[in-house]
Amino acid sequence: MTTTPLVALQRPKDISLDEIEAELSAIWHSQSADSLNQGPTRASTFSMVIYEPEEFQQLLAALGFYEGPIDGIHGPMTKAAVQDAQKSYGRSITGRVDPGTLAKLREEFAKNPIDRIKFDNPNTRGFSISDAIAVQNPGRIITLCPILGEDQGVTAQVSAYCPVQQGSSNHLICCEYITLRGTKAALERVGGLVASLMMPDLPKFVWWKATPNPDQVLFKTLADSCNCLILDSCYFSDPESEFLKIHELIDEGTYIADLNWHRLQPWQELMAAAFDPPERRASLIEADQLAIDYEKGNAAQALLYLGWIASRLDWQPIAFEETGGDYDLKHVTFKGANQREITAELAAIPTADWGEILGDLVGIRITSTNLQADCCTILCSETTGCMRMEAGGSAQACQTEVVSSLSDQKAEFLLSQQLQRWGHDVLYEESLAVVAKILKLRG
């Protein structure tokens, strides 16, 4: 697979915030004047704000564990650095930045008088974009890069980049990059400016690569200014709390897209296909036992899948109990349309080597206490398998299917697909509404 090369029209240049639009105009004017053929033009597609704190990489770099780019990618270099830090500080070696590891990194960072800016390369961070997004020809990308250290205001860099088009045409369709850097407090102060930089009369997206916080002024400003707020619940440190916040935002009219929701598509399609035959579909009303296994560390996918099934079968949650243990067990009780009681169990399965996506589904079993009902179905992950599901025991003959995950589960690829969708995802919103009802039963 070849990558799309990016050609700089002008090298990034440090400027003050009030010069951003003037600097962009100068770039386009100079290129049009110098071009013998038709000059490059700015894409008139959409604008996007990307908020990428990447605090964990900055902390790892400052503490001497990481020498790679500050790009938020949980690749081999980042994983190795996290493992080294966890080993050094006597924590469980998982390669994942769990809340405890992040708290320890912050604690150690606060102890040491380190040059806190040197590891944030100002010439690269915020000026990279994956091929998956670049092919959508964005008109403007505004990247917010919070940095650690003292508040010294906000600095800006502006540039224009053009993917090289294959074919004989010399005409270039280009994207503008605006990168703002400063402490979180400094970026908070310029939220209104960021919103005004989104191009008028074009679709506006905000990709919030952090925990959603409706109480944060910057988050609220951007959420109110965009057509679609894009999140990824696989990185939520506390999905149970964050899902309630997201549901409130949806109720307020905010259009939310959760990239993690799209990772469930193969599981949803196989479960639906299992009940396509009329005789199995008729027996589905007898289903009253559901088990969902997921990789330990993040319950977001399991909760969303539970919400999806419950919303499709009109199950109403009436009780929620967290019993914990090695599998962090969660039990939810529902009432079905025929007043039948349904029980669901969510189990977090420890795995030896977590993949890039934390909390991937491992296995699902739906069955009935009515031994005559032909509804027992088991879905198993192609990569992880689901021995626990198959060893669960059942007097019924179960239909077993192997689920192949999406060819590319990375956020950048899923985001490029999201950019092609318009309109609210009613299925997601209905599923999340059930999840919210379940979570409100806690305690």
TrEMBL record:
Residues 255-432 form the Glucose-6-phosphate dehydrogenase assembly protein OpcA C-terminal domain. Residues 54-105 form the Peptidoglycan binding-like domain. Residues 131-247 form the Glucose-6-phosphate dehydrogenase assembly protein OpcA N-terminal domain. Pfam families: OpcA_G6PD_assem (PF10128), OpcA_G6PD_C (PF20171), PG_binding_1 (PF01471). PANTHER family: OXPP CYCLE PROTEIN OPCA-RELATED (PTHR38658:SF1). This is Glucose-6-phosphate dehydrogenase assembly protein OpcA. The gene is opcA.
